[in-house]
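Appendix B. Raw example, untouched.
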Amino acid sequence: MVHEPAASLTGLFPGLLFHGDAGRGLFSRLFHGRTAQREDCLFSDDAALDIRSLSFSYGRKSILRKVSLTVRPGEICGLLGPNGSGKSTLFRCCMGFLHPQEGHIHVRGVNIAHMPPSELARHVAYVPQEHRQPFPFLVRDMVLMGRSPHMTGCFPVKKNDLDIATGAMERIGISHLADTACNQLSGGQRQLVLIARAMAQQTPLILLDEPTSALDFRNQLAVWKVLREVAEQGVAVLVCCHDPNHILWFCDRAAVLHQGSLLVEGPAREALAQDTLSKVYGGECVRLSTASMDMVCPQRP
């Protein structure tokens, strides 16, 4: 597993985003006055996220190869693939934690390499796969940190910020934990706090890396319901998920990564066809479809 040094800081302060290339890193963008620029190219202004021909390697090990993907407002796109296929690396590139060797990532028509961290944080919210909080921040304060990209001045916390954070906790169902220290929570409860923080950030694009992996079934359904409601408000949602059933049931579109390349992308029911599942998982599962339900089940011996 590769750990980027920014992970702990970005977990605390969503406005701080580190870039893997020193020439385009955090301090370069802070102190050399980089500003967001629109480029005269084929990138779409109406796409919340537009990834083109993205390639990334850790040293000599190629992880992503010419990946292109577009996510539009009001759409939930599920990112599926086996372990090691490059899903988390793709997310880290989209957040500026890693700098790709080739390709570009545009958010609402702007190349993220030209975005100051504070501006990128107003466009993209990120829920990591796992985050352990070393400091005893209260849940309400952790969720309120999602408002930091929108705060200005010496006394930045306004009533509106408090109301938004409170509403996010209510929406995710963690209001009763508001005065509990985050480092006293279970893994599933911490994940709900991170999702509430992303909701409070109120960005047009949300990236979630396996957001329901630590949750019980009831909370899984609750989170997917909230994501559906958020998408219906015009927010674009890209969800990394290991469960093909969740993608079939809750996502509008699906993108399948296999060995670092985009194997297929399209409407979820079409993308997760039997031939795609066989290529990704071998003969271990079968796609079942009825008039009211699609499901991926284990193949009987």
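End of appendix B.
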